[in-house]
Fold each of these.
Amino acid sequence: MERTTLSRPMAIALAFMAVIWVSPFAWLFSNAFDTAATGRLVWPQNFGIGNFTGAIGGDAGRMFLNSLLIAAGTATISVVVGAAAAYPLSRLRMPGKNALLWTLVLLRMLPSVGVLVPLYFAAQRSGLLNQFGVMLALSCLNLPFTLLLLKNFFDTVPIELEEAAYVDGASLWQIVTGIVLPMSRAGLAVVWFFSFTGAWNEFLLPLIFSRVEAAFPMSVGLYGAFGRMGAIDYGFLAAFSIIYAAPAVGVYFLLRRNMNTGFAGVGVKG
Amino acid sequence: MTSSKLQPATRRRWRGSSPRLTPYLFLLPVLVLFAGFKVYPYLYAAWLSLTKIIKGQTTFVGLGNYGRLATDPIFYKALSNTLIILITQVPLMLGLALLLAVAFNSALLKFRAFWRTAYFVPIVMGLVAYGILFSTLLNSHHGLVNFLLEAVGLPRVPWLADPVWAKVSIIIALTWHYTGNSAVIYLAQLQSIPGELYEAAEIDGATAWQRFWHITLPGLRPAITLTVVLSTIGTLQLFDEPYVLTNGGPNNATLTIGMYLYQNGFKYFDFGYASAIGYVLTGIIGVIALIQFRFLREKQA
């Protein structure tokens, strides 16, 4: 651990930064729990959870379920498809392996906004302009990250166990389901939850893919609710935002310890 | 990579249970997804960028869209907006992230859990939630920020309504959201710098600043390279924040290349032109990322 002391100017800079960073949260909570919220940062005058019940009572409940479906679906597809590919990539010397890994990384760098139009057409043509299409597209967006992370996890599972099982006559399927997957449970969970968070927060793809209001996830619905309102209902917006942010923040607290491995890949802009 | 000694046995196992094709069957879903959602759209976009819809018919126009782009003042406006945000926001964010990472790595920091929550929760907060939060806070008439400015005797600022301040608003929102992410990457790298280096430097009488400059910064170089390149790519693709906060306005002051692409594709339904913008954007990102990689790598050696 570095032993530099926190000098006074640095401490002041950090405290100043912290105030800026925290005040949006303070505002959010003070308005969400105030049934007569005015958008000011004050202690709630009419303390109550009316904003939350109001938000859930409206369309937010359905949107929450849509978001849950999209995020859980994306995470599951990512893990299943990613693990299937990462295992041979971890264990075998195959021709073109490095080329494949590099291609994946390079493709991640290509701007996804650049292929918005053809992606929309391709989905339209194959009947995927729906939530399943969103899941597939988002899984594909995550894949380079998923694949590299899972390959690294599989690399740490000792191969001797698998070889012993093979000598004892176990089939490949038995080895994968009996040894490899249970031993990489932690890695699979991390990847699942990261993909979940990424998909939960996604806005652009669901916006383009879900053309009927019944299919809107929370991100699209919240944006719509914001645009539609003439006079801003601060309490409602704040409560809606908190409900929307809660699952992703929950995942963060669940996986804090694994942050170094994961968020580096998920929170990247764009 | 697995150690090569173990490879033959593993290969036998894969061969023993099924034909040699098995590993490729495992890879098939990934390849299909990539073919369908990356490769095909890119090839299709290449074709689209050479076409234009004339009287309802998709017509081949050669490089017409690219020619139009080369003389389109709005495109240049979007390009310069994007570059302005890039060269101001990325250094600001990475500087703050570095400060945070060094503070977090210090044994003297108190209330660690509180700081961590304050800086890292924004990362996982969805774009729309924080976008709406900021557009409410920055509202000129009844936003919190102007209220606070007035309270301390400063004039109100037309945050989202003024061309310059609108860019500043976007930069503030981006920085609030992404700084923690870069700090995490720096923190991971900081923990790999051996503590003995600092101890030895301290014994030799190096000041805190000297230690930072000669040990911390060189040790962080790989992480800095990574964050500079990733943040640059992300900013060049910038779409979400201007879409939610300013919708590109006022008077196109926050129109980014990504927004212009979206507008052409999904507002004016000019798919050919939008695809051409996509290809030019890809080219710009490729060139800038390559230059950065070269530059930062060389400094490293």
Note: The CA atoms of residues 138 and 176 of chain A lie 26 Å apart.
Amino acid sequence: MDSINPILLIASLMVASTPILLAALGEMVVEKAGVLNLGVEGMMITGAVVGFAIGVNSGSSVLGFACAALAGAALSMIFAFITQVLLSNQVATGLGLTLFGLGLSSLIGKPYVGIKAPGFAKLDIPLLSDIPVLGPILFRHDPMVYLSLLIVAAVWYLLTYTRAGLILRAVGENHSAAHALGYKVVRVRFAAIAFGGAMAGLGGAYVSLVRVPQWVEGMTAGAGWIALAIVVFASWRPWRILLGAYLFGGITVLQLNLQAAGSSIPVEYLSMSPYLVTILVLVIISVRGNHGAPGSLGRVFHASQ
Amino acid sequence: MSLIRLEKRAAPSRTLAGLTPILAVIATMIAGGIMFAFLGFQPLEAIRTIFWDPLFDPQFGPYSRPQLLVKAGPLILIATGLALGFKAGIWNIGAEGQYIMGAVVGGGVGLAFYPSESGLIFPLMVLAGALGGWAWAMIPATLKTVFGTNEILVSLMLVYVAENILASVSSGLLRNPDGQGFPGSRNLARDYPAASNPELIANTGMHWGVVAAFIAVIFAYVLMTRHKMGFAIRLAGDAPRAARFAGVSPSRLILFCLGTAGALAGLAGLFEVTGPAGQITIDFNSGYGFTAIIVAFLGRLHPIGILFAGLLMALTYIGGELAQLMLGMPAAAIQLFQGMLLFFLLAMDVFANYRVRIGTPEVTT
């Protein structure tokens, strides 16, 4: 147990949290627009495999991330079309997207099993990274970690202070009223779903390109579902998403470190702890009451004329 | 005003609701054929290998025909339970976990009595299997009724917990003591007759799990059409507010739907682990709990529909295995194919619920 270094632990927490943070942030925007997309896991795993395949073939992780975002967004458009144009049930369609994504990813990923990722350089910010304790924890990560934090701030700013954010929230709170005011409900939702897909794709690619870093079938292992839980935990607020993601990242890192340190708790019980904690947190949140859920969340919108 | 409009029907068209699964299967075959072509297979040959050869090929037919019931049994059993909840707007998507826990608890009870040959052991295991699945489903059900916790996420999270429990017991508590240290329990089907679930009629694939599936379908049919609970389920799904005014207790409905689905999934797990799978291993579960979600929707959440949907989905499994063997098609291609089927099905629902109008309306209201 002495082998756990607290500084390294906190530093790896940020890396472990980034995939869930990206995916949860995307899903939050989707839900703010009144759409429940349960396909996060499917889009994440597709992003993971596409990002990895492009990264390996081109030798560029940046290109891998870009293509993963595109792949996630493309996949989310199937969901958008079926739920928004053909007005299907969102829960069932989202589940379908997850099953579809899992199949698609293992099909694409076959030739890539056992290959190493191209690598993604860390930033090593001069001066700041030399600060004792804080340096290794905060200033020696790869650019995606900082980008994810920037996106949290951007989403928060856009949703709170801009007209576009206001329209998005209006569409999510009451789609009939938003429609009556002349806003294009379906168009706004398509955009939100695409953003959610791109973010899930990025999150998935972070798992396969940086976190692990190789392709293993089913490697997201429920991270997409945990992201969905974090949106509820965060009461649909960007900064709380950050808090939630880092909390879960912390638990994951801690249990992995305990496994590596040869703790007396069996591996299986450590591995199930993030899922149990997710359930516990969901219960605590629901005791407090689900405040902040968008009014039209999950409901079918059909302009009746 | 767009050229093509959707007009909501006063009530969903029953003809079209019955027709859409067939249309969806045809559409999936076409899209699947295109996908197979992209993967470098002859589309028609691939479709034939999946849907025709397992049943009618003189060489493979005799081997794969019995597999149809073996694979359809658990799918129908699980989907029948899931459909009750889906109909009422209760989303249990953790059937895979309930299936695993049924197998672990039921199988564990059987192993505890090894090597006793009492005739009571198998019935006791069946009971324990149902209880194991039921108890696992009661976790999301209780959390939902007491705290209002989202059952979708809790039931799904519990799948991962169940998988870890399975990994733990198959290499620990339930490991075969005579297995030279290999993970996995004693083979219940081969080495422990009192705890085995054998083929009942030779070369049909019929085992107790299939019998249970047929019974479940009949019970669900009677429940949905003749019983007050069935009415409550349908009312809660179509008009939740009206259901509350009619005195339907949401809590009772949640406990009943999740509990039944869990018990049926647990049974499916127990019958699988004592028969076709034979032993509790880390990967005896083959995703039936998730595929059953597709089966439930493909069967239009109706017991009889689920019966046919289960057989069809079983066919894609067997056909997929055959295509893997004969054409070298990756197993994932079939998973993708099943996912596409669900998409087409959900997409085609629009025709049952809405009328498609072409051209601008004469009078805009």
Note: Chain A touches chain B through 46 residues (CB under 8 Å).
